[in-house]
Design goal:
alpha/beta; eight-stranded parallel beta barrel; 17% strand; globular
Length: 343
């Protein structure tokens, strides 16, 4: 008994430092939290004006890009290890209408030729396309609005499916419906299957997407703020844990290949819960525009060193269970990873 007590006392005073005093030991203690270039997705805003390269005021270092500049922006990032981009279409105000009638047109939606350009220029680059109506409707909502002010789910999901097919035909590898409408994953999966693309194009669904104040800079970048009302009737309430789990289940049932939590850091508990429930599905997390702006401006104010803060934030996402990280800091993260490789 005395020997057993002595052993217990020794364990109580066991030093943890011996397990992480060396850099390699720290890496071993961080299994599941390490970051690799293959896990990163870089969002890009594709302008309807080919000659545009306009810095976004609320997101310094990020741009609205025309096709003329796209290759020059992407090439150095690919050389540093970039594997995946996520394309958002930005349309001039005069091209928009209430029904997003120009969404599926290559003439107006330059995401379509952008996919072709990137496929030709970077054959190994994985190309994802955001699928939502908000940047193409004059009212800024994510769906077609009925006369009574509600979303026309049928018309909306039919148009989303049509655009997903157009993107597939252009050569994208992933379509990413971000509208959060009921049934859109099913509609997209069906149309892709009907036209022979279901096994060539993955569906990455914004499954647990919350009605968040952290989207503000994105809406500035994409000119997509609603002209009336808000999106609380179709995006999830910040406290809606049960709804987040149910919407993820719905999207998996309808055919999503990858699910997502958006925004990032404020919802790490949902990342952990969804990953625990569905470890067999890749789980993405979106470090959104407000998170980018918050870290960027805090670092400029001297609150902390930007690289350290970004790395810590992204590590927390990996630790919570995220397999894929969508971040405007991807170029910085690629630089950090390059430095680590050269050590």
């Amino acid at each position: 008994m005395e020997a057993e007590k002595s052993s217990t006392e020794w364990i109580k005073h066991l030093s943890l430092h011996s397990g992480y005093f060396h850099e390699t030991l720290r890496d071993w203690q961080s299994v599941g939290s390490t970051i690799d270039a293959s896990q990163l997705i870089y969002p890009l805003f594709i302008s309807s004006n080919d000659s545009t390269k306009e810095e976004i005021t609320s997101m310094p270092g990020q741009y609205r890009l025309g096709l003329d500049h796209l290759k020059d922006i992407v090439a150095p990032l690919v050389s540093k290890g970039l594997k995946t981009v996520l394309l958002f279409g930005i349309m001039e105000t005069q091209m928009k209408d209430t029904s997003a009638s120009n969404y599926a047109s290559e003439k107006f939606n330059k995401v379509i030729p952008a996919v072709k350009l990137l496929r030709d220029s970077f054959p190994n680059l994985l190309i994802a396309c955001d699928v939502c109506l908000c940047t193409f409707t004059s009212h800024g909502h994510c769906g077609i609005i009925k006369d009574n002010g509600t979303i026309d789910i049928k018309a909306t999901t039919e148009l989303l499916a049509k655009v997903a097919l157009v993107y597939a035909e252009a050569g994208c590898h992933i379509v990413a419906p971000s509208d959060t409408m009921d049934g859109r994953v099913k509609m997209i999966a069906k149309i892709l299957d009907t036209h022979g693309y279901r096994r060539q194009v993955a569906i990455m669904s914004y499954s647990a997407k919350f009605a968040s104040c952290f989207y503000g800079p994105f809406r500035d970048a994409a000119s997509s703020a609603p002209s009336f009302g808000d999106r609380k009737c179709y995006q999830l309430p910040p406290g809606g844990k049960g709804l987040a789990l149910r919407s993820t289940e719905r999207d998996i049932h309808e055919g999503a290949d990858i699910v997502m939590v958006k925004p990032g850091m404020p919802y790490l508990d949902l990342v952990q819960q969804i990953k625990a429930k569905h470890p067999e599905f890749p789980l993405a997390i979106y470090q959104v525009s407000g998170e980018y702006a918050m870290l960027y401006h805090a670092s400029k104010a001297g609150a902390f060193q930007l690289e350290a803060a970004v790395l810590e934030a992204v590590t927390s996402m990996r630790r919570a269970g995220a397999d894929i990280i969508i971040s405007y800091f991807t170029p910085l993260l690629l630089e950090i990873l390059e430095k680590q490789r050269k050590k």
